[in-house]
Predict the structure of Peptidase.
Amino acid sequence: MERLPKVGIPVLALIIITIIVLAKSAVTIGSGEAGVLYKTFGGGVVTDGPPLGEGFHVIAPWNKVYIYEVRQQEIFEPMPVLSSNGLEIKIEASAWYQPIYADLGKLHQEKGENYLGRVIQPAIRSAARSVVGRYTPEQLYSSKRDAIQDEIFTETKKILDKQYIQLNEVLVRDVTLPPTIKDAIERKLKQEQEALEYEFRLEKAEKEAERQRIEAEGKAAANTILSASLTDKILQEKGIQATLELAQSPNAKIVVVGSGDNGLPLILNNN
């Protein structure tokens, strides 16, 4: 076996060292990610500039890059909380969040890679307990869910805005009450619905009675006016007009003139 020439050993060692240095120096940051540069001999975490963006980067081999996802992410958080009267309620909430891109270095330096467990989860839990504690189980179950969702978002955002984290939305997906409380609320809501329905029927009946009364009064007033306007001469004229129309009819008939009490003709059908 031939030995390597003496000059070949240093060259081979140099090539190996170069490959190692390049491997240590090359960093590829994927889509939706950003990198925080840590300078071992240059003051640690770089916080006074933008993070490293997507793509290929070359750094000093003694430095290090910490890669963070900067797209919107979701955390699902089930938690027990207490209502205003001390009953335990279980709510399930989701939060949409993402690191503030320009402050990624500060986030890494002050909170670290586990900022989700150190900052976001405690903030959501604290806000949820504070908000739910203002409401009764009845309000939580029926009409206040949207208000609770908005208030949890507002209070959580106040906390996270100071922690280099952007909160986009909080969604309350479910509110679970103790079975006995839930059954009692449902019975109460059913009774209230029945009471409203009964009031509606009463109001409808009262309006119908009022309509009939007004209609009867209108008919009575019309009859009074009509009776006052019908004199004997008008009635006689109407009778004569009707007699003439019947006399002109093609049907066979017998007309007796002047036989009525008021002197109007009588028409008798000969059939």
The chain has four domains: 8-69, 73-177, 181-229, 232-268.
